[in-house]
């Protein structure tokens, strides 16, 4: 455990596959605060998988649900929150996160993102085309916005614990 005490939620942002959920869970356990995963909370609230939600209601409705879930979580006591890769792209969601939390951009290069997303092929945004091309475009398109997070930390090949330690160092 870390002796660090946080007084605001920590929100992890970044592309799918970068490790927000795994890193977030371990970071929360080191800080001894609860961990939440926005995607999981949306699935619970809607009682369906994200892929099903996209298919049934479309992306704009998903972004709306995502913002509501994040708003609810951020109004609670300090915690670590992993967000879906598109959450921080939404102006309202980003404003909320910037106001109420410390945001951390988890960064990784394209090769690593391709490798990690291939392990679990459930992302609706990667279904219609070549995942590498899609991820490359998303990275280009989103990086300038992710860069608005309070901190940026590199997630590299190898154990996620190293990433967690890098975040803790930057927070201290
Ligand atoms: C999305 C990322 C996903 C999920 C949805 C949309 C995105 O979350 O919210 O499929 O727009 O990048 P992960 O980043 O946890 O895969």
Automatic annotation (TrEMBL):
Superkingdom, taxonomy of origin: Bacteria
Binding annotation for substrate: 39, 63, 85, 142
Pathway it works in: Metabolic intermediate biosynthesis; chorismate biosynthesis; chorismate from D-erythrose 4-phosphate and phosphoenolpyruvate: step 5/7
Annotated catalysed reactions: shikimate + ATP = 3-phosphoshikimate + ADP + H(+)
Gene Ontology MF annotations: ATP binding; magnesium ion binding; shikimate kinase activity
Binding locations of ATP: 17-22, 123
Cofactor binding mode and count: Binds 1 Mg(2+) ion per subunit.
Subcellular localization: Cytoplasm
Pfam families reported in the protein's UniProt record: SKI
Binding locations of Mg(2+): 21
Record-linked HAMAP family: Shikimate_kinase
Protein name: Shikimate kinase
Organism, scientific name: Parvularcula marina
Gene behind the chain: aroK
